Each structure stands twice: as structure tokens, then as C-alpha cells.
Amino acid sequence: MKSYLAAAIQMTSVPDLQKNLDQAEELIDLAVRQGAELVGLPENFSFMGEEKDKIAQGSAIAQATETFLHQMAQRFQVTILGGGFPIPVNGNGKVYNTALLVSPNGQELARYQKVHLFDVNVPDGNTYQESSTVKAGQELPSVYSSPDLGKIGLSICYDVRFPELYRHLSSHGADVLFIPAAFTAFTGKDHWQVLLQSRAIENTCYVIAPAQTGTNYHRRQTHGHAMIIDPWGVILADAGEKPGIAIAEIKPTRLEQVRRQMPSLQHRVF
Q: Which residue in the list 37, 54, 66, 157 is annotated as catalytic?
């Protein structure tokens, strides 16, 4: 593993596939021009709209999104995480919320289907029932090992509230945890940052957290603040509340330093 720049992209995705892909391409280009070698896109980056529309357009979204990720990785010669998009499940009218990691040569490196679904009555009056259209994944994410970028673990949004998933990733050697999200504005203001820092600190890993921001459609508002956090819990970059990028250096020497100073993973009892 070498030192390198990573970027967490922040978008305001809407119910328009092509508009979202155009926005994503612009931000990938911006990240690469600033030197990023690992780029993460947020959950729902290619489509964010009503559940019925997501299902109706599921096949088209899935095909266009996968093609886009492979093309962007090859064009810009970077490793890209597509942080969550719908892929139809055969026969039952639902989709998997899928994250895809793609190499600079356009090859799929890792795929993860979100296991924790957001079925919540938020105190701001909004109700979310992700399981109405999404089928939960059945497998914990794997860790992809790159000689240059380190060992990368995948997750998606609501997963961040389940520390056992990240303990699984760290126990398999993860150095970098991806947490792409479309966090609600209401919950994000209180929980987003502290949850990200917790996952970084307790696993002594870098966290890269791409995010949705602003008003995506109707009453759906997302929190923003895409971040990169170091293994000590220090916020290295924060994209704020507008579309853009958070970019920071991932350093193996910092990982080694923190793990030497705070070897908590070696002290686990249970």
C-alpha cells in the first residue's frame, strides 16, 4: 500500500438518470484533476426519486450505471466505487441496492448488496420503507485487497448503524471503509459525523463517506457533508452542503502509527 489521494463525491441526485450521470462525470473529472486515485460516488448517485419510478426504470438504471462506472474508471484511469444503485432481482419486482468497485482497466473488483434496509419513521414526519422495493443482500461484504490502495471494505448508508458489519471488515484486514450514503437531513445533523468517526476509531481504519445533499425530490432532503476521516477519528475533509468533493491523503504510515499507539483490535476479548 502506498500513500494516495482519495475523493468522496457529494451530489444532489434527482429522478433523471442522464442528468445525474452528467453531474457524476463532472465531479469525477474534478477529483481526478486534483490527483485522486480512488473515487467514491454516493448511494443513489445515478437515480434518486420515487420508489415506483425506481422500480419501473430499474433495468435501464442498472445497465446505464454499470456501463458508466466501467467507462469512467477506464477513461480517468482510477478506481471508482459506485456507492449504491438498483439492480433488479429476477422474478419478484424488487431490486438489490448494489455497490460496485471498478478498477482503472474497467474490471469489477468487488460487489456488495446492501443488507440493512432503511425502514424507519423519522421524527420529522417522513416515513421510509426501503424494504418495499429493495431485497436485502444475504452476504456480508468482502474486503478487496489492492497492492496500491490497501484493503478496502464496502458498505452502504444505513449499514453505518451496525458496528458488527465493520468489525467483520476490520477482522478481515480492512484499511479503508467506504460508507456511501443518502443520509436524511433530519438524522444526519445529529448522527452522521459521530457514526462515521466511531466506525473509524473503533476499527482504526480510514473512512471514505460520499454523500447526497440538498433537495433530491419532493420532501426528500439529504444531509451532505461527504467526509474522509482518518483512523484516529480526525476529519480530514468535509464537502459541506453543496455538490462537490472531499479529498484527502490516505497514508499507510498513519495507519501504522495509530494501530501501534492504540492496538485495540489486538485486545479484543469477545
A: 157
Q: How far, in Å, CA of 223 to CA of 140, rounded?
A: 26
Kindly report whether the global pTM for this prediction surpasses the value 0.85.
yes
E runs forming strands in 114-262: 119-121, 127-129, 143-146, 150-153, 176-178, 206-209, 211-217, 220-223, 227-229, 235-238, 244-250
Per DSSP, 158 falls in state G
Active site residue 43: yes
Annotation says 251 is catalytic: no
Catalytic residue selected from 43, 94, 135, 205: 43
Give tens-digit pLDDT for 120-178. Answer: 998 887 889 999 999 999 999 999 999 999 999 999 999 999 999 999 999 999 999 99
114 in active site: yes
Choosing from 54, 114, 135, 151, the catalytic residue is 114
For the chain of 270 residues, list the mean pLDDT of each consecutive stretch of 10: 98 98 98 98 96 92 98 98 95 92 98 96 86 95 96 98 98 98 96 98 98 93 98 98 98 98 94
